[in-house]
Amino acid sequence: MDKLVIRGGNRLSGRVTASGSKNSSLPVIAATLLVGEGRFTLHRIPDLQDIRTFTGLLDHLGTETSFSDNTLTVSAENVESILAPYELVKKMRASIYVLGPLLARFGEARVSLPGGCAFGPRPIDLHLMAMEKLGAEISIETGFIRAKAKKGKLQGGCIDFPISSVGATGNALMAAVLAEGTTTLVNAAAEPEIETLCRFLSAMGAHIEGTGTTELRIEGVDRLRAVEFTNVFDRIEAGTLLAAAAITKGSITLDGVEPLQLRSVLKKFSLAGCDVTHSDQSVTLESPETLRATSVTAKPYPSFPTDMQAQWTALMTQAEGVSRITDKVYHERFNHIPELNRLGAHIDILKNQAVVHGPRKLSGTKVMSTDLRASACLVLAGLVADGVTEVLRVYHLDRGYEKIEEKLSGLGAEISREKYQEFI
Ligand code: UD1
To answer: What is the pTM of this model?
Structure first.
């Protein structure tokens, strides 16, 4: 297995460019399944394990993909299988994204129940509810979701989401674009990843109103076409890199971003005492000598993202005062706290809230990644800890951060990847 070995203490400085978003790449790639003719060319797709796992699943269904230099081409002309098997789906929960497009194009789909990141309960009931509202009959048999359009083709309908779900909104959108008639999505997720999917589907010929809002109206069309498309930047990677600068009392400029999409996170950096400025496509952050404790509550976009709260927790270990981290999306997403405390942080968990007492001197040791964002938080802590921090099970981090050690070393961090053997 791989581990990251970090010698903490270097202030980060310089320029770095954000990669393409993982979380928008996945539904965009899934949406190529909707088209039976032509070849898609998708730019700014990050070279990550999750992307390779997902294209592996599509290839299993019959697509032809090729991937190099962050450009993915996909032809879904020869897709015949509607069955997504357990062996591939278990590797990532986002595999559920094939359900909507398969059902829309072929009128049926069989998708194994997903696995994936292990924080808190992660149901898929809203995905299934959405497909039912569009006229699908759903049953769960031997670990598989079996979905069949009752009339042979999906029918438009009104889907009112009781809670905001990125994945279920994406799946509903991909199903509705080829359904007969009009579909309305109420309380839809408005995350930039969904906005990107709407832009992509519209470029393919879909009729969608309300892009970027929580109410979407989709007029089904008979067919869509393959197009060339450029993916959006990864706002979570961007926030993590800014946190790396802030935690090391550094100063960096991040290129290739849309600052508006980062506004809730940038606002918190400012409140914590960082000097944040931006132009059209870049953000510069200069960290103060002493950070101020700043509480955050993770909620759906445009609020502070749940995927940034673990990294924010690491940052707050270095801030003066007490800060509270609350997650209203995944209430139990605190696997990283015991590991941060092992590095010397003082964080209590009280009623689904992490209470961080700062500043604390951290000292390096071996720590274990438990999920994607938890690993990022441990890397941040390692950048400021005394001595050497070894972040084990880096495969979690590799699922979502492209060339992370290259990017951090380019900014002046002392970080390297090494092999190790884990004894279980
Ligand atoms: C996506 C992101 C993930 C991020 C999350 C929230 C991808 C690949 N992953 O995950 O990184 O943390 O959005 O921004 O894009 N829920 C249900 N029933 C469902 C579906 C969701 O109750 O059928 C609940 C979840 O348990 C959670 C909330 O809805 O409490 C939001 O989850 P959701 O937005 O669906 O997350 P994902 O799309 O899985």
So the answer is: 0.97
